[in-house]
Amino acid sequence: MLDGRFALLVFLTGVLCVGATVSSPADTGTMTKDVRETVEAVKEYTIQQKETFQRAAHEELTVVQQQIAVLRDKVGDMSASVRADLQEAINELEKKRDKIKEQLKTMQTTTDEKWHVIRSSIKTAIEELKDACRNVMSRLP
């Protein structure tokens, strides 16, 4: 639904900028106001997208953190050789998780126009982390 509204805003902006004729200064003022309102609506939409993505990413990291905690508990009951191998894998999971957290912090200070670049790398990193976590869990006896 939001993508449809965004497309409509872009379309209306184009109509205002390209298809309109200006016959008086009052028309110019109205057009300027309309364009400003459209730009503000697009900015608000972008901010909402960014916040929604950040919230979802944090939720996914919380789930992974819970899985890591379960892994740590289960590793304690294993033999020394298995424990050492799994402990190393868990440490790698935590490093990946921490890197994603840093990327999310960076995203908070990134301009609304450029956050999409970081979003792509974060999405990929989260999927890789979840896959790695599933892989480690599958190695449990």
Brief summary of the model shown:
By secondary structure, this protein is mainly α. The chain has helices at residues 2-19, 25-75, 80-109, 115-138.
Supply database-style keywords.
single chain; 141 residues; mainly alpha
Which H/E pattern describes the elements? HHHH
Evaluate the radius of gyration: 24 Å
The total number of structural domains is 1
* Low-pLDDT residue intervals, each spanning 5 or more residues: none
Question: Mean pLDDT score, rounded?
Answer: 81
Oligomer: single chain
> What structural class should be given to the helix and strand makeup?
mainly alpha
Find the count of extended strands (DSSP E, 2+ residues). Answer: 0
Proportion of β residues?
A: under 5%
Cα separation of the termini? 46 Å
The global form is rod-shaped
* Major sheet attributes: none
DSSP helix fraction: over 70%
Task: Tell me what you see in this structure.
The protein is mainly α and 141 residues long. It has one domain. 87% of the residues lie in helices and 0% in strands. The protein contains 4 helices and no strands. The chain has helices at 2-19, 25-75, 80-109, 115-138. Helix 2 runs antiparallel to helix 3 and helix 3 runs antiparallel to helix 4. The longest helix has 51 residues, at 25-75. The model has no long low-confidence stretch (mean pLDDT 81).
